Amino acid sequence: MAKEWCIGIIGGSGLYNIEGLDDEQWLLIDTPWGDPSDEILFGRIGNVKVRFLPRHGRGHPISPTDLNSRANVDALKRAGCTDILAISAVGSLREELEPGRFVLADQFIDHTAHRASTFYSSGFVTHVSMADPTCPRLSEMAAKAVTACKGKVATGATYLAMEGPQFSTRAESRMYRQWGADIIGMTGMPEAKLAREAELPYALMGMVTDYDCWRDGEEVNVAQVVAQMQENSQLAREAVVKFIESLPKTRKASPIDKALDDAVITAPEEQDPEMMAKLDAVAGRVLG
Questions:
Q1: Are 104 and 195 in contact (CB under 8 A)?
Q2: How confident is the model over 201-258, as pLDDT tens digits?
Q3: What is the C-alpha to C-alpha distance for residues 151 and 264, in angstroms, rounded to an integer?
Q4: Strand ranges (DSSP E) for 118-174?
Q5: Is 6-278 a CATH 3.40.50.1580 domain?
Q6: 285: which residues sit within 8 A by CB, 6+ positions away?
Q7: CA distances from 107 to 136, 160, 165, 268, 278 (A)
Q8: What is the pTM of this model?
Q9: Which residues have a catalytic role annotated?
Q10: Left (φ > 0), alpha (ψ -120 to 50) or beta: where does 232 sit?
C-alpha cells in the first residue's frame, strides 16, 4: 500500500544540520531507552516530511561507543519516519575508494563490543533477518543523488564497524581487508541492526575521509579526517536535498516494512507486558 514518505536523516561527523528545510522546528523526543543524541529537527522539503538527527549531537559531544542508538532509532520511529538515510564518515580499505568519494554500503561486519545492539530481550525474543542489511531502493536513489550533485560515488561496499574511539592498528586494518571489508567506521553498527528491528528501511552513505592505515606510511589523524570531512559535508548536504527532492510522489511498500512478521519467537502467553510497553513504537504493528 502506497503512503507518504517521512525521511529520517542521521547526520554523521561534520553534518550537524541540513539546509533547505521549511517549517523547521527542533523537538526532543522521549523514548523508553533513554535520551537520543539530540533533539530532532522536524521540517519538510517540498511535500516530503524530513526528520534530521545529528548522530553525535550538535558540536560532536558523544563518542561512538556512548551513542544511544536504540534511543536514536526509537525516536525517529516515534517522529513518524518511514525510512532512514544515514550519513557517516568512513575510512577506505581499497585503493579505488579514494578520500572525497561517497560510498553506499550494502553489507556490514559488526566488530563492535560494548553497545546495546537489540531492542528485544527476554520476554519478547525476536530474530530478524540481516542477510541484506540495507535497503536497495534507498541506496540506489542516494547514489543517483550524489551523481546528480557532481560527486564521485561507489556502491556495493562492505562496511566494517569497529568499536573505537581509537583508529585501527596496521595489523587490524590489513586484517579487515582480508575479511573482505571495503570501508571502515565506528557508527554503522548497531544502528543498521536496530533500524531493521524497527522495520525501517535503512541506507548508509559513507563519506571517505582517509585510507585508514593499511598502506605503508599511511596514518590516520583527526586533523586529516576533519579537513576532508569539511570538504565532503557541503556535497553531502546537497546530495541529501537532491535525494529527498527526487523521491517518487508516493512511497510503495517495502518488504522491510514487515521485517517482524516472521521474527517473533516468544509465545504470546510468555510475552512480558513491561517489555512490550517499551516496544510500542518499534514493534507496535505486531503487538496486537
A1: no
A2: 999 999 999 999 999 877 777 777 778 878 788 899 999 999 999 999 999 999 999 9
A3: 41
A4: 153-162
A5: yes
A6: 199, 258, 260
A7: 11, 9, 22, 33, 29
A8: 0.95
A9: 210, 212
A10: alpha
